[in-house]
């Protein structure tokens, strides 16, 4: 079935679209019933929207999903995966057999919620409220960086509009005037446990959308001609458009239409058979939609060679300053993009902004949208760096978690970590971030102790796969290393050490400096202490730790400016858990609720200061 996107649909075209919508409904029922699992009713309500969209408006070469000119289709309501996979069958991307026989089965790429295991899926969805914010990131890339005419289409459910991230996304879409973004909201009135907050109050939806600077178009979501007209207007709009489609959950199956208690429940075989018969039976319609315009070839990602900043040994430099300096240095690469959450003067991301304002996106205090935009930008091949205070990434943690599921390649920098930040108090202190970031699947967690190591690690993050997290320090601390010293991810540094070491002091970031001072004090008392800078928290340098266990008789003191759960101490213990020989590990961490004070006062109070390290080392020997 081929259709030209003319403004007025004829009777034959309407009939063809109706047949395609029926096929999408039938196939959504077939695959979910066969799997005895899935969300068919959420798929049935949006089938008319998708039939019109893929036939007449999405410009996509389904045989070449890597085509830079392709439109992007994101199912923010990822639980409607039966509909998405039915679409993939209709366009010839997958077979009928794969759809019906493998959906939700072990080892299948047709998982319960979409993931990039399928080449036509940009990002994993299913955690509601995430697809639209990611779509904003893709649209930012298209309008401001790629400058290509591709369009971003996002299907949302009405239930997920209760998520604040949806409104963060619409706010930023309006702020940046994203004319290449269209959101289709499937307003089917019923959520998981009953009616949604607004049910079919389309006027309230409209007023909310318009308040965020977006155009709202209200349509009957089962009127094919009205849908077509709305999508045509959206593509020609001068800003972001939200199509608010009034639909019926379970549409096409009278026994379950607009009835509660059917969310996430497949139809039993007998009901499925009656429904498929009522919808006209199984079809094998093949759709050929509009094709994208040719895209020019991409340029090389690098311009001039990267020249990292250089620092004098012993000079006091905050690692957050080195982060900003390194960002500016790697900015010679045209694929590097930076985002921040209105704290760039503190994270030092503003140093990149001053040099490359066209590749900086201010997300204001919208941390969820910031991480989502980074994920969207990397879909288009960019290398995004997003920064805020370490504590505030907790607001966006589900987006970080889902970035891991998406296998997204992003770099995050959390500044103002630990009690070291001083007088601002506990609300500003990132004390949980190492644990959170370590738990993300496939993540890398880095915590440099000085400016040289920080700059070197930033340079590696730009090409490293997965979610990469860098923890930086507010205060200035002495530069420990010579410029050009290598800092491989997964490595560590031995700052003090010899064959007669009696204890190993293990730190990262600010506590490395406390360990060095403690080692000097211990040396004056005749106790040789090894000092290890464990700058790579994940992956960890297990070989260095094994050597420390062997050489010190298992006497280890781990010191971290973090809560004891899940941070550096946990990483060390996990790496040594399979040792047959015993270790005597003392774990110094922040165990109480901090207050305001100077960095020294707060570290001493927390038991991670120099005197506490000396006492722990003495007790161990």
Automatic annotation (TrEMBL):
<dbReference type="InterPro" id="IPR020826">
    <property type="entry name" value="Transketolase_BS"/>
</dbReference>
<dbReference type="Pfam" id="PF02779">
    <property type="entry name" value="Transket_pyr"/>
</dbReference>
<keyword id="KW-0808">Transferase</keyword>
<protein>
    <submittedName>
        <fullName>Transketolase</fullName>
        <ecNumber>2.2.1.1</ecNumber>
    </submittedName>
</protein>
<dbReference type="Pfam" id="PF00456">
    <property type="entry name" value="Transketolase_N"/>
</dbReference>
<dbReference type="GO" id="GO:0004802">
    <property type="term" value="F:transketolase activity"/>
</dbReference>
<comment type="similarity">
    <text>Belongs to the transketolase family.</text>
</comment>
<dbReference type="Pfam" id="PF02780">
    <property type="entry name" value="Transketolase_C"/>
</dbReference>
<keyword id="KW-0106">Calcium</keyword>
<feature type="region of interest" description="Disordered">
    <location>
        <begin position="286"/>
        <end position="308"/>
    </location>
</feature>
<dbReference type="InterPro" id="IPR033248">
    <property type="entry name" value="Transketolase_C"/>
</dbReference>
<dbReference type="InterPro" id="IPR005475">
    <property type="entry name" value="Transketolase-like_Pyr-bd"/>
</dbReference>
<keyword id="KW-0479">Metal-binding</keyword>
<dbReference type="InterPro" id="IPR051424">
    <property type="entry name" value="Transketolase-like"/>
</dbReference>
<keyword id="KW-0460">Magnesium</keyword>
<dbReference type="InterPro" id="IPR029061">
    <property type="entry name" value="THDP-binding"/>
</dbReference>
<keyword id="KW-0786">Thiamine pyrophosphate</keyword>
<dbReference type="InterPro" id="IPR005474">
    <property type="entry name" value="Transketolase_N"/>
</dbReference>
<feature type="domain" description="Transketolase-like pyrimidine-binding">
    <location>
        <begin position="317"/>
        <end position="479"/>
    </location>
</feature>
<dbReference type="InterPro" id="IPR009014">
    <property type="entry name" value="Transketo_C/PFOR_II"/>
</dbReference>
<comment type="subunit">
    <text>Homodimer.</text>
</comment>
